[in-house]
Amino acid sequence: MKIDDTDRKILAELQRDAGQSLDEIAKKVGSSKTPVWNRIRKLREGGVLGQQTVVLDAEKLGFEATFFVLIRTSEHEADWQAKFLKALRERPEVQEAHRLAGDIDYILKVRVKNARAYDVFYQALISEVKVHNVTALLSMEEIKATTALPL
């Protein structure tokens, strides 16, 4: 799918605030409502736009601890991986999970209320899947967090 400058402007506005009206977006990108709607529809149909969500304030909701969890495993069989991925998908505390190249096999971003809640998460995870080594790093301060792509 080809994306032009107007599409990029629309995408930038949607990333900034997807709750804007079509009129607001059209005004900001120098177009009118119908062409903007048609472009958004095409971007959605083309898979460029995914689901729309709302960003919640985790701390105001009591989720004050973010842990980055480094996992090393000696298991690399398909059965183990399927079980591991299922365990991650079933845990709402896991906000992100990445398979890595290098010494660490996986990194997880885990958001919980406190250290005790992290321990409950950790104990549940290791009871379901065998891991070789787990290192948990507590984030002391979130300096930057965004889902916006540099269009």
UniProtKB/TrEMBL annotation:
- Example GO BP: response to amino acid
Which InterPro entries does the entry link to? ArsR-like_HTH (IPR011991), AsnC-type_HTH_dom (IPR000485), Dimeric_a/b-barrel (IPR011008), Tscrpt_reg_AsnC-like (IPR019888), Tscrpt_reg_AsnC/Lrp_C (IPR019887), Tscrpt_reg_HTH_AsnC-type_CS (IPR019885), WH-like_DNA-bd_sf (IPR036388), WH_DNA-bd_sf (IPR036390)
Q: What is one GO cellular-component annotation here?
A: cytosol
Pfam families (alphabetical): AsnC_trans_reg (PF01037), HTH_24 (PF13412)
Molecular function GO labels: sequence-specific DNA binding
- Designated name of the protein: Transcriptional regulator, AsnC family
Q: Which organism is it from?
A: Mameliella alba
According to the entry, what is the taxonomic lineage of the organism?
Answer: Bacteria, Pseudomonadati, Pseudomonadota, Alphaproteobacteria, Rhodobacterales
